[in-house]
Batch of 4 targets.
Target 1
Amino acid sequence: MTTAFDPVHLAGARLANRIAMAPMTRSRAYGPTAAPTAATATYYAQRASAGLIITEGIQPSPVGQGYPDTPGLHSQEQVDAWRVVTDAVHARGGRIFAQLMHTGRVGHPVLLPDGLVPVAPSAIAAAGQVYTHQGPLDFVTPRELSDAEVRQTIADFATAARNAIAAGFDGVEIHGANGYLVQQFLAPNANRRTDEWGGSDAGRIRFAVEVTRAVADAIGAERTGLKLSPGNPYNDIQEPDPAPTYTALVDALEPLGLAYLHIAEAPGQRELTLALRKQYGGTLILNPAAGDRPAGPEDLTLIEDGAADLLAFGRLFLANPDLPRRLAAGGPYNAPDMSTFYGGDERGYTDYPSLAD
């Protein structure tokens, strides 16, 4: 019987275990450079005993930023700063993927440089607010991407993926979940296009497929992962019948030979998770829906039952940097301090450790 503590091969490397650190927004890339700091290197190195670390969301272009103080991978300064992080993780025997996250309509002009405004598949504002240094602000109506801009955005993902490898990352995860740009193209309430990028399941999955193919062509499919969250309503996404869309998407992805598919499971979607697991022939990482509690030791049986090849843990990894050791020993566990999840850090800015990217 396979357990979470057995090794597994991924991206040409042997992972020590099947426990992944889920991506979580940290908002610690201060200043106009949007580059990670020494604290970022310490944070990830402390958690290098994970079989795989997936970083916080990293914007592939300036307009892809949706939260304050989040890092990028679109400048040489950012590449150099991330190299310090990956070196620190590798020095402790860890493996680390960069998550590329374009937030699309989730964001606000005050977070963007040079007069940029959020962009999206369609000019439809998301309901809700985003935190900024000026406080919470309503989401604005995004500018609809032209066909040429859609193609440029795909190219931006590929360039950022090359930058990730230059920075020493073992691979890249494309963020196609949680209501950000890739899922905005997938969701019928956010994508009202009638051109080749919308109008049907085949049209709405095209952006996700083309981004994934471009990244795989740039750095190798064996170093490319994709995260999805079928049916997740986060950031005003409405997918009333997600199964046909995601079944078509997985069919299109299957021939690419990706490193993995990562599912952030939405509540009530276990049946679809298991169907996609059966459909997809490659490695599957699962961040299981666990209700109000963090994903924890109760979920380890999902590896034993074959529902997933790796399990991704979020909040519990924040409170327990040596989480694999604690899971193997049956505890004890530090409880995540929920009071700090939306509190200020030493700069007086909100740090978002509870937002699973």
Note: Residues 341-357 have pLDDT under 50 and may be disordered.
Target 2
Amino acid sequence: MPCALVVPASALGIGWQDLRADWLLDHGDEATGKVVAVHTPRDGDGTPTITVSYTAAGVPEQAEINRDSDREYEVGEPISVFYDPADPARVRTEDEQNVGDGWMAVFSVPLIFVAILLPLTITLAVGWARRRRLARRTGWRPVRIQAHDRADHAQVVRFTVGGRRVVARTTSLTRVLREGSRRAGARVAGSGLRFVLVLPRGSRRGGPRVVALRAFDPRRGG
């Protein structure tokens, strides 16, 4: 699902859960129950809950309700319970919607994923857009590439362009060539610190391979 659809879909899902919970307040049957257990996980590992006992249509029931409010509960205290007459196990209180962890995960996790992925995607897109403009300005120049592996960084490549000896590393952990390899027929565009390298027959399908590079001064540690 495209990122543009994840946010509204997740928002609709969370809204649907809220409507289901509110329906119990407006249309459910009310009973006076009692708190029989209070569970508060340590260090936030798990979901706080209360266990309540109540009578629905003359039948004793007991349900565990997820807590998402700041209200404090004590065992034995009376509590108003709202349940679905057609499904007495579907229950909530005035303060606790009792939305299931599974449903919240289904609708919330995609939002968290998008919140992490979207800034990264934008950063990558902006970076490549800048390199595209740079390539149009400087043009593509043929170079001979030499690659070196470094244990603490991405692979380092060396080439000479416009009389300048450039040492650069890939902006990802992708290896450009095998350690110590030299390859002619490559093309490079860019200047300053940003470069784009195109290797002929770089992919398994035989097409060119495009790699983003960032130059550095090896004398300063790079």
Note: The radius of gyration is 30 Å.
Target 3
Amino acid sequence: MIGVFFLAAGLGLLFNAAPGAVFTESLRRGLRGGFRPALAVQVGSLVGDAAWAVLGLAGIGALFAVPALRVPLTVGGCLLLCWLGVRGLRDAIRPAPAADRETAPGRSAWYAGAGMSLGNPLNVVYWSGTASAVNGALGGDAGFTGLAVFFAGFMISSLAWCFVCAGAIALAHRALPPLAVRAVEGLCGAALLCLAAIAFAGLG
């Protein structure tokens, strides 16, 4: 079980540290508002990951691979990415006054992270096969205890990454001049639109 825990912790770090939509949105908000908005996006994403983990480890996540469920889920995720991408480009071109900038996490940052995680079809694929992988690592049926240990290891390392990532972004927030922040915001907005296009193309 100790080996399963550390395996899950390592997979959690790899899963969360991989560049993607969540990191891009965390960077966009964190460069503008600092640690708290970046952390809110990360934690919101972790809530979505936890939901997929429970469904996947329980054997229910495979249902979301059915086109009737997967397609609407993916389309919703694409629309969210498009909206966030347009916001990133807008803020880069015409930044809001300092008084109107989001300096606290608020609900929008949390919802953005959770929405991106829940609308990511790759999460469905990942967690649908996780239970089988844990069973294979234990040489048989992992049972509730094995799956619970795997879940705990994954979530603990994921939560630790939330703070590490938000902290690094906060350092960049303090170091970068306003012009550089606007440039990165524009790149983040464009990246989110590209990710939306790639996800939408995958429906074909």
Note: Residues 45 and 113 are 4 Å apart (CA to CA).
Target 4
Amino acid sequence: MVKIGIILGSTRPGRNGEAVARWVYDVASQRTDVEFELVDLLDYNLPHLDEMMPPSMGQYAQPHTQAWASKIASFDGFVMVTPEYNHSTSGALKNAIDFLYGEWNNKAVGFVGYGSVGGTRAVEHLRLIAGELQMADVRAQVALSLFTDFENFSTFKPGQHQVDSLNATLDQVQAWSAALAPLRAA
């Protein structure tokens, strides 16, 4: 069975991303064709990149990097939940991505963005990064607006159309993750 990690890409106190990631997980968990796991960056306590060797070498010296690499390697694909800060993704998510290389290769990735314009600029930056990491980013995405999907910019209340967008994203991540399995096995 395909295993998808839902990565909560914010570590900020009072983050909106926790409610968004739990919603993604709750909707995803209704499916029987895929196994999902919520991965919270707070649980990994990754400092600013502190490995001597480039991630492409796969020679991780730090225990926190080894634990992170093991977790990411266990998945066939991902859904990244990202806020938009200053027209990009969070520094915490970018840093977590930059710790690894091979563990991301030949896996599918979909995006759930949130912000004043739905996190779309953060997602576009992540798509560029995904290409460099040899990931297949899916076309469907969820764009959550702080104005319409959050009450008072903090209480998450997505519309039904967002569930439809999420299911389309999950469908594509599942399909691409399964399709890339032969490349991961090689």
Note: The mean pLDDT is 97.
